Amino acid sequence: MWNKSMPLLMLPENTKDNPNFSRNIFCPNNQRCYQLKLPQTFGARCWGSSCGWIVTLDLNQDLYMFNPLTKTRIPLPHLSTMPGYEDFPEKDDMDFYELRGVFLERVLVIQVDDRGGDYILITIPGQPNGIITYAKPGDLVWTSVITREIHIEACVKDVVRWGSQIIFLYADGVTGYCDINACNHSNLEATTLMKYLPPP
After folding, report:
1. Is there a cis peptide before residue 200, judged by omega within 30 degrees of 0?
2. 34-75, pLDDT tens digit by residue?
3. Which of 154, 155, 172, 183 is paired with 4 by a 20 to 30 Å CA distance?
4. Does residue 157 contact residue 97 with C-beta atoms inside 8 Å?
């Protein structure tokens, strides 16, 4: 039996041609695999979170927040609404798998507060000078995070919420931050990412 506090790991697809297959979900607490029918994840790139949501990117470049237990699916802004998408010169010559690797290395679900219910999604691009973006469920476009005082070629490796701030960890050891309220209340205004701590 599952409960809300148990971590679950969704394993990769075991088939490429049947959308009605069962996904294997591993529960480390029970040391067991469970099978769930999740056609909503078929063929999609999936990113998990600690909030119970999976973010999916399907072949149509549509993004969703998806809860594998309740089957709730919330649409997110399309991949093409990310800043820099239209200006990327090679996108028309790339297949879906290459394209998503350039624009999305990871998508993280950040809870706005400890009560839950409100979320901000942060994207980490797959290229060093890519644009970090954010959106909330219900937004129509992704909004850029402007980097100040941090080397433009630095690559973001991880993001976490700490109190009222979102902390960004860069590959070169620098940490940056922005206020979570700036992301939560303004969809079309770019949020500024400032240097938090120098390396190491």
Report:
1. yes
2. 888 888 888 888 888 878 899 999 888 899 999 888 889 999
3. 183
4. no
